[in-house]
Structures are given as structure tokens and as C-alpha cells.
Amino acid sequence: TVLAQAILGSRSAAQNCPSQSLHDMPLRPVDAERLPPMIPGADVAEAQRLDDLKQFRKYLVDTGGVKALMKLFQHTAQNEMRLDNPTLLKDFLGKYQEESFESSEEVTLWRDNEEFRKQNGELEEQVKRLEVEMDEAQRFRLSSQLWAALAPGAGAV
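Request: output the structure for the sequence above.
Response:
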């Protein structure tokens, strides 16, 4: 019974919670003016669809897809009299040798990667040389300090 009262008491406390009553509070005119206007879901969906379509068109242009389709249509207009040829697209793409955006970008990236690997090797060799020089300089400085401490009148090396 104590447990039941605690549970019932917590429920009634939750019902009396001020945050629950916020749902029932009217919106002040000042707050309503600051809120942006509600946009219907259909308008949001249409705007998203148009944005996706725009991005897809940009992708087709960037990857050379539009250029390939234009060449296909030119090839069809010049060489094929009938468009019901089922192997037209397959034949054209088999002969289409123009380098696409992705393959030229891939070649550039491979070339850059090789250059960076070469530079990385050179920099690692330079680090090793500098570490050796730094060790030699530290040994020389320590030996000079030791010599000055052991023989103060002899002068520094």
C-alpha cells in the first residue's frame, strides 16, 4: 500500500507539473511574430525533390554523363536509321573511348599520391639527418660545458 501510494503520488505530482500546463498556455502575440511561418509538408517535399534533381543534374554534368548521352544521340542520328535497335546503347558504349571525369581525376590522384610518397621519403631522410646533427650539437655543447667545468682556465673549445 505504501508503494501504491508512492506511485499514485508521483502520478499526481506529474500531473501538477508546470511543464504539463505549458501545452495549455496560449501563445503570446510577441512570440507568434518571432516564429517563422509554417510551411506545408507538400511544399517541403517538392523543394527537396527539386534540390535533389538539381544535384543529380550537376552530378551528370560533372561526371561527363551528359556529354556521353549527347555523343550517343549524335552517333544515333548519324549512323543509325532505326531506333528500335536493341544493341544500340551497348554497341555505342563499347566503342566510346573518351576519358571520363572520374578516370582523369583518378589518374591525377594516383600521380599526386606518388609525388607525396616521394616527398614523404625525402622528408623522413631529412628528419634523420637533422636528428643526427642535433645529437652531435648536444654532445659538443655538453662536452664544452664539461671541459669548462673541469678546467676553468683552459678556455672553451
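The CA atoms of residues 68 and 97 lie 10 Å apart.
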